[in-house]
Amino acid sequence: MTPDRASIRAAFxxxxxMSAEEIEAWLETEESRAVGxxxxxxxxxxxxxxxxxxxxILRTPDAARDDEDYAHMRKVVGFVRRHRAQEPxxxxxxxxRYSLMNWGHDPLR
Length: 109
Prior knowledge:
The chain is mainly α. The chain has helices spanning about 5-15, 20-25, 30-35, 45-60, 65-85, 95-100. The chain has one domain. It holds the Pfam family DUF3140. It comes from Sphingomonas parva.
């Protein structure tokens, strides 16, 4: 594994604190469906589509991950870092928390 991939993987593992199973269960909730931006012509938010990709990456062995997986992992890390910096007063029931959970990160953990 290249040093860049190793650092991306480490940052991804630090940012994503939900398992594939937890992410998939979260996607079944109304709270998950209620947040996020949807691209024109799409029916699912960007975050929910990302969550499905994250769950797939979590199930893929390191050796089988490709450049597109690592690009998405880097995107996830950036999203989580940016949004953690915007923490609201009440994070428990906030759209902020729900949005982060769509990206595989539960800030209450």
